[in-house]
Amino acid sequence: MKVSSRMCILLTSLMMLGFSGTEAGGQDVQKRVEEAGGIIPLTGNRRERQQWQEIVDLIRLEDEEGRPVHPTLKRLWEWLEGSGHTIYIDMRKRRGAINVAGSFALRKFDPKGGRHVGVIRLNLSNIDQAIVADRNRLRNGLIPFEGLGRVERYAEVLGHEMSHAVHILSDHALGRSVIDLVDRTNEMLLDRNRKRGLESIGTDFRARLSERDELLRRLESRAGDVEKIVWSELHQAHARRER
After folding, report:
1. Which of the 8 DSSP states describes residue 66?
2. Judgement on whether residues 97 and 18 belong to the same structural domain of the protein
3. Domain match, 72 and 11 both
4. 229 close to 142: Cβ distance less than 8 angstroms
5. Which of 91, 105, 196, 218 meets the CB 3.0–4.6 Å disulfide criterion with 200?
6. What are the start-end ranges of the E strands in 58-206?
7. Sign of the dihedral defined by the CA atoms of residues 213, 159, 70, 66, in that order
């Protein structure tokens, strides 16, 4: 994790929990938060806190018989909450955010496998502005956000990213591969670009890039399939409410 990202997460966690003090004290609080594990939202203002609560209410929604209206979202949520790992959900608006709806990243890898730390980022403004069109249809046939309302859009993206989190955090070898092959390769690529330019990439490193891309393709394909299920459950519930 970059120092700036670490400090942003730390400071927001302290403000949310009502703590303040020295850097050492803040690190102690962060340690206790992460030892408890579970899902921790990071929001920057009242509006973002309200939006987070709307997402949570949607995930927890039950029908008249007490069954979850969106069972896949609920299953992913409950796994992360009870996993012992810490998952920050960062909804804070930032300038210059890249044109993606969401992302998941491992920020701390526990070699023993029990206490990983991950961050899901939700770019709400990008989700709001996303165009629903056939040209955006995924390989599995899904047109993201089709027929959904604002909060349901947020929930669809969160479902996609929670799927990544569950997949990676539940498989220790896969988590290590993400760190060693994806994150490390990206760092090496940036370093090579700064020092020598991309034209200096040799055969061995190109092979490493191909391995990284294949792993990312498999991860994205699985999350996309889960997202399609999440979308279907959201769409069906939305249609029932509109009748």
Report:
1. S
2. no
3. no
4. no
5. 196
6. 86-90, 102-108, 117-122
7. positive
Residue 193 backbone phi and psi in degrees, to 5: -65, -40
Task: Decide: helix, strand or coil at residue 49.
Answer: helix
In the DSSP assignment, the letter for residue 62 is: B
- Would the CA dihedral through 94, 96, 101, 104 be positive or negative? negative
- Beta-strand pair 86-90/102-108: unpaired
Domains identified in the chain, total number: 2
Residue 204: CB atoms within 10 Å:
8
Residue 210 is predicted with a pLDDT of: 94
> By the 8 A CB rule, do 70 and 230 touch?
yes
**Is the same domain home to 26 and 120?**
no
Amino acid identity, position 17 = L
Token pair recorded at residue 143: 């047109």
Judgement on whether residues 27 and 63 belong to the same structural domain of the protein: no
| Same domain, yes or no: 81 and 144 | yes
Q: How far apart are CA 81 and CA 60, in angstroms?
A: 13
Helix (H, G, I), strand (E, B) or coil at 41: strand
How distant, in Å, are the alpha carbons of 24, 103, 145, 163, 228 from that of 54? Answer: 34, 20, 17, 20, 21
72 sits in which H/E element = helix 71-82
Structure token digits, residue 87: 């998952």
**pLDDT tens figures, 83-140:** 999 999 999 987 656 778 999 999 999 999 889 999 999 999 999 999 999 999 999 9
Domain that holds residue 63: 38-242
